[in-house]
Design goal:
The complex is a heterodimer of chains A (239) and B (309).
Chain A: H1 2-17, H2 20-38, H3 44-47, H4 53-71, H5 73-80, H6 83-88, H7 94-116, H8 118-126, H9 131-156, H10 162-178, H11 188-196, H12 198-204, H13 212-234
Helix pairs in contact in A: 1-7, 2-4, 2-7, 4-7, 4-9, 4-10, 7-9, 7-13, 9-10, 9-13, 12-13
Chain B: E1 2-11, E2 14-24, E3 29-33, H1 40-47, E4 55-60, E5 63-64, H2 69-75, E6 76-79, H3 91-101, H4 106-120, H5 135-147, E7 153-156, H6 165-179, E8 183-188, H7 191-197, E9 200-205, E10 208-213, H8 215-220, E11 226-233, H9 237-245, E12 250-257, E13 263-269, H10 276-285, E14 289-297, H11 300-308
The chains are: A mainly alpha (239), B alpha/beta (309).
Chain lengths: 239, 309
């Protein structure tokens, strides 16, 4: 565990020693809050209903662009600087490296989540928010972000180029997010695609119910992504 | 300390290391010498557990690099080729990070930091960021991270490449100093370097060991041999070749006809023979005029070139 924390601390230092953390956190909050309060046919102030679902709807799309920007450098930068070679020859397992790096992105995302609390807190002063729905929505949003970041990390572990890592990450996330729109009807394929899509499971959280199937879905995606990342690191070990 | 047995490494169809065996004793400084692409780096990457050998076994202090990788890694300090560092980190932060991962903690950490900073002479730049450092200081930071856990074994891949002559001497002194208490393997393609620092030399070429021994032993293998460069006037090239080939212990290495008709030639003369008088008499009898005659003995450089060409 101390090895995981060593990697985690190093990544946090890197995020906050440069403008990356500040840029991704502030751009997410500015864009999402603007979309929620002021954009589209039904901006928050115009429809006059105490509902913050818009935060999570818009947030899921904005995060699709922001999350891979957080995770793109994690492994690709180590490859580019050749520091990965030193890292993997120290007494630390590939999975510990991956977990330490992943943990740092979760903390960045937790700060983003904290920033979005402005909306529900301020709205709760002027209207009635269903706190059950708010809490379940936040849990859903946390798992959504955690999944995006794990996928972005997996993309980063396949290339030494950060731009490629970013684009690959975004494409993988987008494919999983939109999968339910890729097959129509009620056949087996359509059901399969629907059940594999992030959007399908994500929406369930807004009903104020936590379904273990949805949680399990996100947890499996995270698990597989981390496993893929660790396997990519271990590819050097092929004889 | 390190035992390499029949090790092979292939990248696809390309065999980078072919059936290599050698061992390194405790406290020994072993120099890997070879041209670029000879397999030095690949060999080091296998010893440091970066990648496994395709065939054969490597053990470090009795531990197999495949099955007891974590134990091996704890014993080794590694400086990879071209000294990869986290550019955006501060020097102290970086060393603290390495100490963190290597679990050098508490009072040990404080002592280790003081030790590596003084050994590698980093105190002047300890508060700087790595990207601000000169090449020489970067190399020292690389050394510092390699010795922060006071490892028994140091693996250094081309530690002096790209440094200026003063820095090279400093790094060589550092290697010798560290080699007093540690087992060291370092690679280089510079002859003088192994002569200056290592107890033993391993010459690698095209994935194979071309020769091994102390620098003296290697030189002795061709000791006594002599080069003789001559310029002759009034000599016929084919006649000269015919005459030289007729003398035992003389080998014609090179012959060139200069524009003005002079012959420029390089001869190799076997150990234990001195044929200069005989050559003089031959020149006289053939009416060749010796314009130049400069003998030189073989250096380790010649051993290297001879073995790796």
């Amino acid at each position: 565990m101390s090895e995981v924390l060593a990697i985690y601390r190093k990544e946090m230092k890197t995020y906050f020693n440069s403008p990356i953390a500040f840029i991704v956190i502030s751009s997410f909050l500015v864009i999402t809050n603007w979309l929620f309060f002021d954009y589209g046919d039904y901006p928050f102030f115009a429809i006059n209903i105490a509902d913050i679902r818009g935060i999570f709807d818009y947030g899921a799309i904005v995060l699709l662009f922001i999350a891979p920007a957080v995770s793109m450098r994690l492994i690709s930068e180590e490859k580019h600087q050749d520091t990965l070679e030193l890292l993997v020859t120290m007494p630390i397992t590939d999975m510990q490296i991956i977990l330490g790096k992943y943990l740092s992105t979760l903390v960045i995302f937790a700060i983003i989540l904290g920033g979005t609390l402005i909306a529900p807190i301020s709205i709760s002063f002027v209207g009635d928010l269903d706190s059950g729905i708010v809490i379940s929505s936040y849990i859903g949003f946390f798992f959504l972000g955690a999944t995006y970041l794990a996928m972005g990390l997996a993309a980063s572990s396949f290339t030494r180029n950060q731009i490629i890592a970013y684009i690959m990450g975004m494409i993988i996330i987008a494919v999983f997010f939109l999968m339910n729109g890729m097959a129509n009807g009620s056949g087996l394929i359509a059901t399969l695609f629907e059940n594999l899509s992030i959007r399908f499971h994500y929406q369930n959280f807004f009903r104020g119910v936590l379904d273990t199937r949805d949680l399990l879905y996100f947890i499996s995606l995270i698990f597989v992504s981390l496993l893929v990342s660790s396997t990519a690191l271990a590819s050097r070990k092929s004889k | 300390m390190i035992d390499v047995q029949n090790v092979t490494k292939s990248y696809g169809a390309f065999e980078a290391v072919k059936d290599v065996s050698f061992s390194v004793e405790q406290g020994e400084i072993l120099g890997f010498l070879g041209p670029n692409g000879a397999g030095k780096t690949t060999m080091m990457k296998m010893i440091t557990c970066y990648m496994p050998p395709t065939g054969g076994t490597i053990t470090v202090d009795g531990m197999d690099v495949l099955t007891e990788s974590m134990g091996v890694r704890k014993k080794i300090g590694y400086l990879p080729e071209s000294t990869p560092l986290y550019e955006e980190m501060g020097v102290r932060d970086y060393l603290n990070f390495i100490a963190d991962v290597r679990r050098v903690q508490g009072a040990d950490r404080t002592r280790a930091m003081d030790r590596v900073i003084s050994v590698t002479g980093l105190s002047k730049v300890i508060h700087k960021d790595i990207h601000e450092l000169s090449k020489g200081y970067r190399q020292r930071v690389g050394f510092a991270q390699a010795i922060i856990h006071d490892p028994e074994i140091l693996v250094l891949d081309e530690p002096t490449t790209g440094l200026d002559p003063n820095q090279i001497i400093e790094i060589r002194n550092l290697i010798r100093e560290l080699g007093e208490s540690k087992t060291v393997i370092f690679s280089t393609h510079i002859m003088q370097e192994v002569q200056a620092t290592s107890d033993r030399v391993l010459i690698i070429d095209q994935g194979k060991i071309a020769a091994q021994g102390t620098a003296e032993e290697l030189k002795a293998s061709i000791a006594g041999q002599m080069h003789l460069d001559m310029v002759l006037r009034n000599a016929d090239k084919s006649k000269f070749i015919e005459v030289v080939n007729g003398i035992e212990h003389i080998h014609l290495e090179d012959i060139k006809l200069q524009k003005n008709g002079d012959i420029e030639t390089a001869l190799k003369i076997d150990a234990g023979t001195d044929l200069r008088e005989q050559l003089f008499d031959l020149a006289v009898s053939n009416q060749w005029k010796i314009l130049e005659s400069s003998p030189s003995s073989f250096t380790l450089e010649d051993v290297f070139r001879k073995l790796t060409n």
